[in-house]
Amino acid sequence: MEISTPNAPAAVGPYSQARRHGNLLFVSGQLPLDPVTGTMASEAEAQMRQVLANIEAIVTAAGAKMSDVLKTTVLVTDLSKFKQLNEIYAAAFSKPCPARATYQVAALPMGAQVEIEAIAVIPGETDHACKGSCAAAAL
Where are the membrane-spanning stretches (predicted)? Predict the structure, then answer.
């Protein structure tokens, strides 16, 4: 099932904001676009805050919370800003924090400095795709 909300920026390509499969939510890489203005802040720290706000909007639209995020992949164009970005990231999640991988990349779409994708679990839901016959249903 496709998940979409006007509280996060529309996809800038042929992909969904998120897809739900059973009780799992797969959030596409979010750029730091303001969903109202379509603009992007110039500072990496402001971009990190916007990306996390976009993820929260999508997760909320799916019926989950940031504490339901299990895994993130963080892409940055400059790892020298890791400490500052990590502090902002840490404030967005309660413990236990999601599993995470962080990579420095040569470039991101639209000149962004930060992009994050996420996987979350929808609480209280069963994995209807497995019909109770697979381990994922236990989540």
Answer: none
